[in-house]
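[09:14] KT: can someone run the structure on this one? pasting the chain below
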Amino acid sequence: EIACASRAEMDTVIEAPRLEHISLTEMISRYDIKLVGTLSCVLQVIFDVNCPRKHHDCGIIDLLRQTSKLRTLKLAQSFNDNLDYQRAHLPVFHNLVFLELAYVTIPFVLQMLQLTLNLTSLILRRLSWTSDDQLTLPESIPKCLSSTLKVVEINDFCGYGIHLRLTEDILTYTAVLKVMRIQTGQDDSKSEMDELMQLFMVRRASRHCNTVFCDPMSVTVSSEIALC
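[09:31] RB: done, structure tokens below
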């Protein structure tokens, strides 16, 4: 297991072919994670890094390319500019069942849904998007939506545009969804409440879905529900 929580002042070099767990959190890094050899045994990656350099991913793309056997991925990464993950050629994660994403773009969320065929739990926090982003599901619905995804937690729900559309589509197409937990934003505006009411009207693929709305001022949303 590798665990690190600090300001990275040099490249992090990983040479551990039998490594199973990687945790790099609370880091501010202008440097890279560099891999030596393969990481075919890695089952869990927790990556929470602020990369202040423009168009710089701190090596996370190469790391993901070599860890296709992952079962758990928690990825929170902030950039000055969004990287083009669509051209990253990430592998299909056949074994991934738990996915938590924060500070990434909604198009990247859609890409990961396409690549995680057997996903059961999804947590989304502080997603970002631009006015140019458009939410277009592929012609074939991601396999995890139609067959395996059971628990979804969306934090900091604002109800605007593409964010609302993503939430609607998850409800519409996720056939075996059991729990959809939505934590609202801080403003508690009328428009946000209107968007929440709109979600009640969405026709859901799963008859057994329990939708829970949480106010961050009075309720703390626990990710433990995503492990049920």
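[09:33] KT: thanks! Residues 219-228 have pLDDT under 50 and may be disordered.
[09:34] RB: yep, looked fine to me
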